[in-house]
Amino acid sequence: MLTSVIIFLPLATCLFWLHLHVVMAHRAGTFAAFICFLSAVALFLFTDCCYYDMSSSFRLLTTTNNLAQIFAPSIIPLLLIYILRMRNGQDVRLKQMIWVFIPIVLFTIAELTTNLEGKDNLEEFIRSLYIQGPSTLTADTAPALIRYHLFTVVVFRSVIFFEIFFLLMAYSRIAREDGYRLRHLWNFLFRDGSIDMVGLQFANLFPLLIICILKLCLFRDYLQDHQWISMTMSVLMAVFLCPFCFTALFGSKRRITTRQMRTALRYNYNPKDKDRILEGMLTEMLGEASDRTLLKLHDNYGLRVESLMRSSAEKAVDIHELPHTELFLTDDNRTDDADSLTGRFERLMLDEKLFLQQGLTLEEVSEQLHSNKTYVSKMVNGNYGISFPELVNRLRIDYAKDYLEGHPDARQEDIAKACGFPSASSFNNTFKKITGMPPRIWLATHEHRDA
Description:
The chain contains 23 helices and 2 strands. The chain is mainly α and about 450 residues long.
């Protein structure tokens, strides 16, 4: 009994977070995408837990084995849709739904084989297969049963392996475009820094992917004699599901800090800490509020908005939202020591506009500064609060805004080339991530405001 409870622990954990998201995160921009993903995970975990629970009846396994054909291959595509929604607010497109035919084909073949062979014969086949392993397949085995095993085991697991590989390739591309580094995670965990939500979610996913790969390599006939392996993986999966699902509660944010995560349940604080916690929460919220919201607060409550705006800007402004003119302040406020590393770096970036060079690397900048790339990287992070690739991208986007105003009819490829981006798609993705809208929509909105 205890073994079954532990085996079904991941399913119970998934259902708990599913309910919590419905109650607490229904306003998040990623809510629909995440709920679809988590629902597919819950349905698959039911079939998976039945497979690993040795007390499950073989008649039940016949049904859950077929259901797994449609739920398991749906998880990775739905996860990618959730990631894209979180990364740039992208809605689901028709071409992103082409993957649907994979689980439909697998499920259809499994159901046809089940009906043709008969559930009784199939149940007996699954019994011998799960007890004796693949050695039960002999020359006397019915061709329909061999086809059933081929599609529901061999092809099915190959598809899942391919989808995991595709997910890792997609993450590699996103990490390269957005400049993710392990030090960002380190700063977030141990230095109270901020981190990109997509990068954090991929970090939370990594141990889950490792467990999934291990599960795909272990078959029921082996686990029958090593139930401790099944229980260990179930506990680990339940544990690692929690940070992933908890982080998803913040689906409306592009970046997050450890302090924001600690105050997620805003009103669960010790009365002794009430003033300090409320002050921090109000400061953060005022820093994120628009001028219109602040003026409305002024009208309703008589707050001294100018003072609050200055205070919130000093305490909680997100440096990732500032353009490069504010990152470097102004020409009058640049570092007094022009010969220092910071002064020479600012001269390269602002005066010589080195950031417009395609494929610019930290090593090339370090060579021009006659310095070590480690020192330059620490200087950038210390002075501007972001990594070198992030800083370069923000400088390019600010330049692109001016370029768009001066060349409103320019092609995307020409704009990308002029601003230092390798391709139009890279330019569009970066522009949308930083400004929240595609270049053309930004230009139209800007022109409308000027009019």
